[in-house]
Amino acid sequence: MNILVVDDSRTMRDLVSRELRKDGYEVETSEDGVEALKKISDFLPAVIITDLNMPRMDGLQLTRALRARSDTKYVPIIFLTTESGDDLRRAAREAGATGWIVKPFDGPKLLAAVRRVSA
């Protein structure tokens, strides 16, 4: 299964990718929403994991853009962020997010969330 990881932190992209690859997933990474949208058509992710706060295009803007496209309208989107406020979670749900995990993440919890949204 293909998973796209979108985060402006190279370290976080590497940590998340390593955890997912250990479990057998194919992973592509992007440093922000603009780059993610360029890669989507070629990679066709089954799940997208995105940070909230990123330059150029943040996670909320990315989610709205993905929900507006026919090829990604129903792809599960998990936010992986340091933010935990109820208002931001609500905004993410309204934009079309499927799940929310607060950093620092726990590997088994991340994998369980991916399995849950892709089932």
Q: Give the radius of gyration.
A: 13 Å
The largest sheet has its strands arranged as 2-1-3-4-5
The profile of the biggest β sheet is: 5 strands, parallel
The arrangement of helices and strands along the chain is: EHEHEHEHEH
Mean pLDDT over the residues = 94
Number of helices: 5
Oligomer: single chain
Helix content: 40-55%
Range of strand content = 15-25%
The shape is globular
How many E-type strands?
5
Low-confidence stretches: none
**Class by alpha and beta content:** alpha/beta
Distance between the termini: 11 Å
Could you walk me through the main structural features you see in this protein, from its secondary elements to its overall organization?
It is a single chain. The chain is built from 5 helices and 5 strands, in the order βαβαβαβαβα. By secondary structure, the protein is α/β, with parallel strands linked by helices. The protein has a 5-stranded parallel β-sheet with strand order 2-1-3-4-5, sandwiched between helices. α3 links the parallel β3 and β4. α2 runs parallel beside α3. It starts with a strand and ends with a helix. The model has no long low-confidence stretch (mean pLDDT 94).
Write a concise synopsis of the structure shown.
By secondary structure, the protein is of the alpha/beta class.
